[in-house]
């Protein structure tokens, strides 16, 4: 977790955030509001120190917001600003959640959570766990047995403990140990895992157990052997860098095509208009998306992700992370750097969150906004006249990158010039590794040897994207279409070539599988609005890559906890504050508080008038590590597309200016010099 | 079909192609060789006019090439240059295929094909069919019944006839008619289809039948009604163009990172090295792909594609195009224009093919070559030090765009900086439309109303990519891996969280389905070369999007002809000149000469030593038209990825120079002016 991001921000930035303005109901908490919330909460607990886990905007009820959105400027109903907070009484297991009314300066509710509810990590807690672990004499005695070379030191990565029902009621951390050279703080310690794994109790700040890791291909645990580190570094100073990659610059001579308003929280670009929010847990949130004045989505965010591991051996059997619920995509967001994370003309957004003391910190440059050329949008050449029309696709990208210990995720909301919206995840960073006896040369079937003496276990990454739609207004329905061969005996199909489309309505809350073999396509439609030309309900379709569902057994804790990971699409009836598919509290959870529970309501939908449906789209990868993924992995990319279907009355990109050399200023490469006499100089089509 | 591309090229270009050099055995035929081939063939047929369909390189036998590739420069065995040609005796059904030895100037073989074998279209033939159709008095009499407004003229699109076993032995064309304003040659006539469909016999150049098209939702045919055109144009002068999209330029101040040699047919870029070829049928062909001196692929090309339509009614029941076999991806290639089809610094390649007279024509700028930034290649941030490393992915793109009447395909071979190779297809252009009675407001279940009185029938696009591998040398095998949950009763899996990988060898020729629910991954491996670290066979995996297989009934002509469209992956034993998955002659074919026939050989593979396997990867989309796809459709993109798996001993992109602002020269957008005080200036991470 990025300690650097959790340092208190510089004062002037905090001041910089104190903007006098009327806050939009979806505006993230300001620095002042965070300070005010913490003060009100501290008043509730005189004389004790609190460990804050989050202080975040309590969004208004949807019915209230509907009224607010409908009302004219100036006559908007006043909505109280509220905060939602979770905190511990430090060094105790007592965790509370509370709702603060910032307008009335009152604590509206305060609940002490029951046993088995644990809140997320925070940067300070993680660093503290590392200190406790390495300072423990028992741990040091075990480490001594490794007979490490001089100038080698041990690094502890505290890992979310997980659940197995065995003495796991209290909040604990499983620490995985690695070695690195003392003189290289940026050494890739994951190349040298150590078979010692201390468990730290959070409340007492004590090592309560030292697990020994199996280092063979079975689950037996041997004696600790002397460890001879073999380095495998990813930093450039350890590489012989290639020198033949020429620079490529993206120049926007007239600046960008997008426009910010409302303190940077509102964006307009190519007929799209929407609000940007940011919170500790979800990171980026997109609100009130409209296209050319027509509503499309009410709220979009990544709900959660589950990363279960394949290695069945203790303590790896507990290894399943929920990086949003256990850590937070907002809290772990990188400070993005100009010229490193994006090309072109880039805008950066920064938002405040609360640190462990309840103090506001500014997450600097946690979202970057830029445009990208995305190749040809459409082309047609009339073969009779030889005239061709080409237009290029442009994308607007809102990107946020998170670091969760060893691993990185690059998240992006991508809007394009054809009325399409995509959510993209790129997985990179470093594999979580385990020690393996160096004499073992064959990979076990649950992992890959990525370095001598190092095993990277298979694992799944399963994401849940929450879509709260407003397709052409509120009141939507979900259907799926399939393509089927016409009956061979149907007299209408005498040659056996015909096929047709079937439509299935989602009549009530539930979970559904994809079915590529039937070309199953899920659509969100507004049943009250019909396309003027073909009379189809206006809608958007969901294109998500098929994926293997959670492999853990249905009675396992992995399965019970990853409540969204067994279906491609879940549809629920909207409930206020029902954001997190695996529940509000995922850390050491046992399930029963997320989407699999919610659908038991079996709420029926009104598919005639439309209803308040929420669509949860799951996607992911089963990561069978390649050695090419180490010491740092090339990105693996996943994209979920939301595309209009009979929402417009023709191609919405038709009014794009044609692609012309006078604007694009491409350069002809004369390859004669390389002995090639085939390059022809091309004049522009316009 | 691009008539403009089939006009004889300017003389100086033809001369320009006459390069004195030693030709590589994979060099496409030169202008001289095409001329020489035509002359030798014409000598065989004194006194008759020939209609040439193709004159193309007859590639050497693979065993011969293996010797040639092994041999030292200077001591290479001499390989005779050969041509393969197909031609008709004009105005007869007599079609011949022949092999010409250009070195010995001899006709090596000449075969008159049997009944039921028909060759492809050519630009001149298509224009002639259109002339014959529109000049026919019977057709004109039918058109008169439309009572078209003045200044409206009829356009005929000749369509590949297809097969249904009913009087379809001779080569015919099915012409679909449309109207357009006389004064706009670039009008989108597909918005005004006409229910009259003449059939033209190629040999006699006569209209032999005038089909009437059903215009309701069933297969009945009514009287021809007066037609009132409603225009739906795609050209910019008919749009109110958006004015707020700012220019975006890609600047490569030091030029490109790739290098051509051998007359532009050999390319080197970022450790990749390969040859580029081009022919009438496949268009781009990639040969002898190596990475850092290690062989990867022997030959890569798009083998064919099938586009069957869903509408079961006569004559639509025959509508299935094989755009490579019936027309040719080389013959239909666009002349790419600087600043229209690509951004950045672009090189263009041109290659000669033969026209219908057997004369060489230069397909100018039929391939463009350029680099593209592809976002982050890898990133890791050390949360303890706050130091992060980012490298950006670069791609090298070889692009070719084809126009087949109404439709466009954008094809690209894409190489990247992580040792990955992709094949991309983007579908765009104009839907093939059919007339519908204007009073019909509800779409039939086999098509979508995309304009008043216009139906776009559902159709599938199924592609077959031919991969002739040489992973770390010749002698490869194919396997597929699946991920499976460990047995719940396995004592090794006490908590039910474990899963493992199974491997299945492809032991003999056959076809296989994808299985995303099992995370099935096909890999091409070299069983004789093992990864030095983890002892796995070196290999590349295939990542292709799952797709719905051909929906037509197994006894239908659609199914019999689309021999590759029912499986995700076919594996065959290499046979010389076995390139085309639906057979050499797809036009009006009846099946039995393609891959479904070849696998009946059931050749066993040597999976220990490796064997000469060829892998055919199918992918596609079931296109259920949206009104947004008309009058010209936004691109739909498909990508097949070939990624190294345990081929290297670590991330091959590790030596990429880190992404730095000093090189990237990104620009910080100060959004204060837009009322946003949140943009922070970012210093570079380096």
TrEMBL record, chains A, B:
Q: Which ranges does the record mark as transmembrane?
A: none
In its record, the post-translational modification comment is: Topaquinone (TPQ) is generated by copper-dependent autoxidation of a specific tyrosyl residue.
Species per Swiss-Prot/TrEMBL record: Orbilia javanica
Residues of the Copper amine oxidase N3-terminal domain: 124-211
Q: Which Gene3D superfamilies match?
A: 3.10.450.40, Copper amine oxidase, catalytic domain
Class of this enzyme: oxidoreductase
Indicate the residues that form the catalytic site: 323 (proton acceptor), 407 (schiff-base intermediate with substrate)
Q: Which Pfam families is this protein grouped with?
A: Cu_amine_oxid, Cu_amine_oxidN2, Cu_amine_oxidN3
GO molecular-function term, one example from the UniProt record:
copper ion binding
2',4',5'-topaquinone modified-residue sites: 407
Q: How is the cofactor bound?
A: Contains 1 topaquinone per subunit.
Return the similarity comment.
Belongs to the copper/topaquinone oxidase family.
Biological process GO terms, please? Answer: amine metabolic process
EC number(s) on record? 1.4.3.-
Task: Name it.
Answer: Amine oxidase
